[in-house]
Amino acid sequence: MTSLSFDELKRRHRSEREAYPEGLNLRVHRALSWLKRAESCEDDDSKLIFLWIAFNAAYACDIPIEYRPGEQHVFGDFISRLNAHDRQERLSQLVWQSFTGPIRVLLDNQFVFQPYWDHLNGKVSEEAWKASFIRAKGAASKALSNNDTPKLLSIVLARVYTLRNQLVHGGATWNSAVNRNQVRDCTHLMQELVPSIITIMMDAAQSHWGDPYYPVISDS
What we know:
- The structure is a single chain.
- By secondary structure, the protein is mainly α.
- The chain has one domain.
- The chain has ten helices and no strands.
- Helix 3 (44-59) packs across helix 9 (149-168).
- The protein is globular.
- It starts with 5 loop residues before the first helix and ends in a 17-residue tail after the last helix.
């Protein structure tokens, strides 16, 4: 099952949006706008950044200040909710068929594992990051053996999140040769994941997807 393009999703949204709750309408509208921008990019660095913004637009909610460092848990919960509404098993097909190889490579890649960088920056010991890496790989292996789509996808997204941080916070050179493989794989994954997420949300339009934290406010 292939994911839909911006044009296909936008046509569907226009034909159905009057029946959608206001909050979902805004989420889909914003997510589609960033998906469109991502599709127009010629380089993977820019494309990945815009795809992550589209992902944020779909799921973002108010996170209490004391929990904001744990944002990854929030999108983990979001993936679980999506999976529960995924009647066509789009997420499962993406994880277990389309991206099995790249996902395994990402899970073995220390350069998209945040504790590795925490160690290099003197925040944790070498033993600590390596132990954390072993635990994370164990959790991924368990998810793989149990066909646990939400758990595995959440672990993978944590890796993409680390790469996203490297790009957004200036921790990587544009079009650098040293990180092409992970940028390419993460970009291809997000190119399929984001349209699938938008599709699932529209399929389950009457489910409560939360009120946007930044609603539209008129400046007049």
